[in-house]
């Protein structure tokens, strides 16, 4: 399956990247830096972050706890291949909205870890900007968002464009950056999600 081509048709219910590190031996940074509140887009001091290892993180406020981790598989360890998946999240304190994203790089694509990283970061950025514009700085619920599928579509298209740009900047075939992408938005009551590829979301009591 060509996951990258599927970015334009997901299933729905920053130019600031350093391209000097664009090679198959250097993995994107997945550590406590992404837990800095200045980077996660919230100044809410009730949101507590903790980095437990280079690929594991915890965050929580009074209502929601987040736990994420990445593990390099045994076959990757043997072949000295980097971990090709990436996950991140964003809490919009004014809107009281959580945004989550995860991507799994295609194993046969040498730079898919960068594709996964870019897809996650840029899809979150896109959804953030759309929801902030819609909310006008106020708390919103997903029930008040009539066009959530359109928001997801724009986010996936934006992520694809950024992956293509990254590949161009690296002067590498865009095929080498293929990954899956799964995104979810949670308002404390309702969960909306969208994905492309063979990832999925399991929700209980939502």
How would you write the strand order of the largest sheet? 1-8-7-6-5
Counting helices, strands and paired strands, the structural category is alpha+beta
Identify low-pLDDT runs.
1-9, 13-27, 29-54
Radius of gyration: 16 Å
Total E-strand runs = 8
Q: For the terminal residues, how far apart are their CA atoms?
A: 31 Å
Instruction: Kindly estimate the percentage of residues that lie in beta strands according to DSSP.
Output: 15-25%
Mean pLDDT: 75
Tally of helical runs: 4
Q: Quick one: biggest sheet?
A: 5 strands, antiparallel
Which range best describes the helical content: under 10%, 10-25%, 25-40%, 40-55%, 55-70% or over 70%?
25-40%
- Shape call: globular
Please trace the helix and strand order, writing H or E for each element.
EHEEEHEEHHEE
Quick recap of the structure?
The chain has helices at 37-40, 74-79, 112-135, 148-170; strands at 11-12, 48-53, 56-60, 65-69, 85-92, 97-104, 181-186, 191-196. The protein is an alpha+beta fold.
Walk me through what this model shows.
- It is a single chain.
- This protein has helices spanning 37-40, 74-79, 112-135, 148-170; strands at residues 11-12, 48-53, 56-60, 65-69, 85-92, 97-104, 181-186, 191-196.
- The protein has 206 residues and is an alpha+beta fold.
- The protein has a five-stranded antiparallel β-sheet, covered by helices on one side. A three-stranded antiparallel β-sheet has the order 2-3-4, with no helix packed on it.
- Helix content is 28%, strand content 22%.
- Strand 2 (48-53) and strand 3 (56-60) form a beta hairpin.
- Helix 3 crosses helix 4 (148-170).
- 39% of the residues are buried.
